[in-house]
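A protein record pairs a chain with a discrete description of its three-dimensional fold. The shape at a given residue is found from the number at the same position. Here is what such a record looks like in full:
>
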Amino acid sequence: MTRQQTQYLARILITLGAAVAVIPIIIVIALLIINGLEAISWEFLTQPPSNGMTEGGIMPAILGTILLTLGTAIAAIPLGVGAAIYLAEYAKDTKITRTIRLAIVNLAGIPSIVYGLFGLGVFVLFAQFGTSILAGALTLGLMTLPVVISTSEEAILAVPQEFRLVSLSLGATHWQTIRNQVMPQALPGIITGVILGLGRAAGETAPILFTVAAFYLPELPKSVFDQTMALPYHLYVISTQVPGMPLSIQYGTALVLLFLVLSLTLVASILRTIMRRRREW
């Protein structure tokens, strides 16, 4: 087999592999759109559920998901990016730091239900936050933290060393170099990691099941110490616990959740593209 034939065969195999991965995703999205689009209306998006959740809308669940995602971002981003800066720029390569990095990787692979039980024990019971938005956001933030730390550290380490050397040679301090040179260049990668973590948090059911989610709560939350409905748990409830639930409402709820997650990804892609154009390498 010639070199050109080998390259052609490899191209075919890679294309087939990509198709195998992408086609099922397209089918799932198409099924959600076909079966759920008829349920999407202004009333469905802006009204609370009624008649045993078989009618009305999903507004409390949408708002609850947005609030939990914002709370997760507030809890995870500053701490995660700060830890990544320390590991990438200040920590020396010792057994302790290698152990910490290994622990972060392992934490990213822990099942979400374990985080839910941890949040129940620490935030709900020990800290006495109760089943609330605060407890749920902290639990989701803890679950998202390993992803934010790992991706942010990789983005910071990917910045060429020349940026640091030139800045330091001109008299800037280490922190000024990180703030003014390293972080602007690493920001596209950091944003990608943050959005991936938030997208996962927005679609999780197990952690919020123990810490915040309500089975049926049409009223909107008034503080961070209130319970709230959330789209992932609401979708589980109407799919398994409510008899006579119209199939279109189930698919419509799933479609709205998918749209929220894809919106996060789209925003991240736009921001990453803009910032990459400004990047100097």
User: Anything to note?
Assistant: The two ends are 39 Å apart (CA to CA). The chain has one domain: 59-278.
